Amino acid sequence: MKPVVAPKVIIIDLDGTLMDTAPDLAAATIATMADMQRSVPTIDQVRGWIGAGVDRLLHRALTSLMEGEASAKDMQAAGAFFIGHYNRMNGLETVLYPGVLEALEWWHREGIPMACVTNKPERYTLPLLEQFGLGKYFKVVFSGDSLPTKKPDPQPLLRAAEELGVEVSSCLMIGDSAADVSAALNACMPVAYVSYGYNQGRNLQELGEALEVGSFMDLESLWRQPPGCAEARALHG
């Protein structure tokens, strides 16, 4: 087996990968359902609904179904309530996951370009990155409303690679959910996913070749030393 070449670019998801944003998303969702006099979910329920953008979160909250579809009228009302609540709550209880800042700083010092590609709307993405001092690390940021499509569509990842001037095969996508892994696989991009985050209890290995890691710091071995065969298979098939 040929040695694995260290990725030239890293593309990273936000919710459930860089940050635990669930407490703020849950608070806004719970307040929204209360405003609409609907069944109020628990924080754990909302955690299980995160991962495909705000619209999908609200569909799930309104129907209590993962693939539920609420009426347009309900979605319009819920969206207005949610925006009001989340504008106030975004970042209040959010925290970075262990190892994130250390890994970003290390990659930055090594001169490895990074992009953030998230399904979170830009109005929430950019303030969070700045609040936690992460904006300086990302040369490209694509939010859920930056482009016509979002993950699991591969286009945001393909555009990020294009913006950074590298081939898709030279990138590494890091995420936490089926949307992240599917987007990378659809783009033919090497992908790793964190064992924490919001994956709705799915076994992401079932989606295809992907590397599971417990922390961003686990990935440093790709640059510091030759990876083992399991990592090579996961990253390059």
Termini separation (Å)? 11 Å
Largest sheet: 6 strands, parallel
**Beta strand %:** 5-15%
- Total number of strands: 8
And the CATH topology of the largest domain? Rossmann fold
Q: What Rg is obtained from the alpha carbons, in whole angstroms?
A: 18 Å
Tally of helical runs: 10
Whole-number average pLDDT?
Answer: 89
Q: Label the overall shape.
A: globular
Strand order of the main beta sheet, please?
A: 5-4-1-6-7-8
Q: What is the CATH C level class of the largest domain, in words?
A: Alpha Beta
Helix content: 40-55%
Tell me the domain tally.
2
The low-confidence parts are 226-237
Output the CATH homologous superfamily of the largest domain.
HAD superfamily/HAD-like
Q: H/E element string?
A: EEHHHHEHEHEHEHEEHH
Second CATH tier, the architecture of the largest domain: 3-Layer(aba) Sandwich
Which structural class is indicated by helix and strand composition?
Answer: alpha/beta
Question: How do the helices and strands line up, and which of them pair or pack?
Answer:
Blueprint: E1 9-12, E2 19-20, H1 22-35, H2 43-49, H3 54-63, H4 72-89, E3 95-96, H5 100-109, E4 114-117, H6 122-131, E5 140-142, H7 155-163, E6 171-175, H8 178-186, E7 191-194, E8 211-213, H9 221-224, H10 229-236
Parallel strand pairs: 1-4, 1-6, 4-5, 6-7, 7-8
Antiparallel strand pairs: 2-3
Helix pairs in contact: 1-2, 1-4, 3-4
